[in-house]
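pasting for the record
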Amino acid sequence: MTVPSNRGAEIGRRIGVGLMYGLWKPRVLGAWRVPAGGPVIFAVNHSHNIDGPMVMGTAPRGTHFLIKKEAFVGPLGPFLEGIGQLKVDRTVADRTAITDALAVLDRGGVLGIFPEGTRGDGDFASLRAGLAYFAVRSGAPIVPVAVLGSTERRGRLIKALPPLRSRVDVVFGDPFEAGDGSGRRTRKALDEATVRIQDRLTGHLAHARRLTGR
């Protein structure tokens, strides 16, 4: 197994900086809350197609995102792999993706997850258990991340993207532990962790909206 390299993720971060600041106007709040070292999980809301690249370009550390396998088509596939991104088959329990994600955390890297699974309202209303599993299994703290773009329809070249040159707010929250301290990984423990995570993520999103006026 070839673990995606931190170097690749750092290259991805630098590419993201150029693209995101070139096409939009990111405003980053709370980046200082991201631990400077050790394993971290970014839990990101998902309402725009640029949410992943925006976090990659504004986070202080290179990030390995779990990305649906459908994105790895043509020349984009080798590019995404080269910048340390992880391919996941969302239709099954993808053991390769799980192993790769845990390897990133075991090595002290940053794993990015959209816990809602797919792009939607971006309100953390429906969380999948995968985030709780990775957090409890690895012991890595979760940093909630809210990406809030313009809801204006004018100026949009593509429906799923904010208008070009519009402001996009990226708000990093305080890191927190998902487990209850017992180290249990039972279904009940993961269900309880998911509830705790949802409460924290929903609270962070509400705070981010108040903070940014979104």
